[in-house]
């Protein structure tokens, strides 16, 4: 499937075929594509929890006002981020760069994030937003549907997945085979309304 087709055909699908399964090859293909997503300074804040335990899926569903895609889709991912990733062995993020580049980038990264909690968290969330779209488009191109979700009690889901200190949950994504197509698009703002030239 071409990129533009995947973008146009991706919709937030809520109803899935319970009996369908995703071959390991497809899951790996989606996740290998996901981790190629861009991040500031290549920090790759994302940490994914793949929920395979059905009992845990039901507990998460309960914490998400009964959203059925949580138990019915083939896969459920909780997209988390390590807010302190900028400070966790950052040399890994530039390992393949020439040493002259490394010696410029590493102090720049530290100066950019150190002591700036809002920026650290913003960046972690930005990385998850971008990787989420990669996951959804990669899944669509393999003929799966997805549903991104923030409609859940984050504290309860954090407890269920043993979210470590210094980490945040950005969203969850259900991936599976649609049982029912999404409703027509809710109403897109026109490009004229959202795109300006040079200033607001
Ligand atoms: C960050 C985020 C959180 C969302 N949370 C939920 C959710 O909890 N439950 C749900 O059914 N849909 C959720 N959605 C889906 C949106 O309602 C949907 O993307 C939007 O209405 C546009 O529709 P489309 O994705 O089909 O184009 C979420 C989408 C995003 C991006």
UniProtKB/TrEMBL annotation:
Keywords: Oxidoreductase
Pfam families xrefs: Nitroreductase
Cited InterPro entries: Nitroreductase, Nitroreductase-like
Gene3D superfamilies: NADH Oxidase
The keyword Membrane is annotated on this UniProt entry: no
Domain Nitroreductase: 7-177
Protein's UniProt keywords contain Transmembrane helix: no
Single GO molecular function: oxidoreductase activity
Homology family: Belongs to the nitroreductase family.
Protein's UniProt name: Nitroreductase
